[in-house]
Amino acid sequence: MAEHDGDELLGYRSDDDVIAAMNAWKDLPAAHLKLALQFWNDRLTADHELRMVQEKNRNRLDVMGLIAAFVVSAASVGSAIYFGAIHDYWMAVIMLGPSVFAIMKLFITRKAGKSDLRASGSALNIVAQPGGPPALQ
What we know:
- The chain is mostly helical and about 140 residues long.
- It has six helices and no strands.
- It is elongated, with a radius of gyration of 28 Å.
- The model has no long low-confidence stretch (mean pLDDT about 75).
């Protein structure tokens, strides 16, 4: 647990606020203090359980991203081999180009940068130009 989780839980912004709350609480009857502490404990328990569920879901998402990246990379390599076997070398290069690596990076890190988009776009722009790439013989 972080150092100031209790302060954030109660909505305090500074040490002066904490001192003011403690001064107000010191005059409360024991039954009221017990109720307040029980509420605080229940709230901390609920927050902890929520964080545990979030962490579990984050781990599942990471594993699913790794699996998706593996599937994309296996399909890309398989497609590159297939296109290479039928002598369509431009498609083979595209299957192993920067766009595939950008997609794998997106699945693994769940972040995409401008440089990834530029790199993947430049490879596809070569093929998409009028006339296309020169034919290989």
